[in-house]
Amino acid sequence: MARAITFDRFEVGLDLRKGPSVSDANRLRELRNAYVTTGKVVRKRPGLTRIATLEPGTKGLVAGLGKLNTFYESGSVTHTNTLFQAHQVAHPTDSQPVARIHKGDVFEGYLYVSVEYADGSIWHHYLDGALPSHITDANCPQSAAWIKMSSKIWAPDGDVVRFSATSLPRDWSTSNDAGFLPTGLQQTGALEALALGQQDRDLVVYFQDSAQIWVPDPDPALHVFKKPINGVGTRYPRSVNNVSGDSYFLSDFGFRSISMRGATDNLTDVDVGSPIDVRVKPLLTTGIDPVSTYYAGGGQYWCAIGSSIFAYTFSRTMKISAWSEYTLGVTVDDFATLGGKLYIRSGDDVYQVDDAVFTDDGSTYEMVMEMPYLDFKLPGVMKQIVGVDAVIQGDADLQLRWDPRDPNLITDKIPLSGDTRPGSMTPVEVMATSVAPVITSTSNQAVQIDSLTFYYETLGVT
Question: Is the same domain home to 170 and 319?
Fold first, then answer.
């Protein structure tokens, strides 16, 4: 009589720390264009709907004041789509096109942005109606990275972090109000501060090889150095994002979290990005500009490196910590969230991440879920697999790899749809000690993988 075994928990997501023939069943070898839900099942990612092709000449996408804001250097640009507002950010000394917007946010009712121009210069602008719009105070670092906290703007400047006067982003010089944190005095490694983040209510100062945690206050006399975090930092300011009070970022080793580093001081096998380090590290080449966001619709941290997005689903309540990878047909230049909707800018095209759509601007994409080699808790025992049942929402195909020594050995596709358990099992003819299920779908509809059940007979030890 055939035995049965069911797999219905995929809460670990993409995890490449072990080899495919020894990894646990809930640690997936591939999870592409899909993610793990709080119900611990796998669901196809939302698609992209193009909502606008913007008039040429602008860069950036910053949500604020009820609009998606873009920026240009000279002339005049008006967007016909009223969801968008174009702003002039003139170069202080020359006519230079805007190359990119490193960061933008609303501060005290107006947009504050750091703008890089074609000549490589970076200037901060405060769009409060005053002219010139750029910050003229000589103590403003004019850095790519900055953050707003404690009613001040904070920005790295070599071996210090400078801050503006309280509620006055144009004033970086008034004593006993504006000033700087002497971050270099606390360093034992790299001295140059490269990025800023927030962990709970604390300010995180990032260096390439370390970080510092400070307690900020509107009163400079009350700033407190809290602790150093040695051994890991970031040189990618736009990868830094706050998620549920933790500061996530992309280091030279992979994705990390300040909260976990501070609590455990262990880099390799407990930190947030270790399951996908081997996938991420080859992408960290010269010239990349990773950009991140928090996608509230999925409870996920997203970080785009070119046209790939690494998505981290996290839920303390449901004990979910799962990575997946999304491959888009476009390069992500900017993220922006407005009115609970996430938008992506790529060139002059702007897309909305749409939970009701499962194509990218009409083009289908392949969802892939690959499990490790499963020995059905009987290692080394030859098995004859005779059938499979699945609980799947939508349409998908199942294939089985049967020899970990040669991953090219794989069965033909078996179509699966719906809940197959009430009817006859789907027949399968495979003899192996273990099999690695591969589920794919190019459907333009929603797809969810709830469970797989295999029926098999044992044939003895090989």
Answer: yes
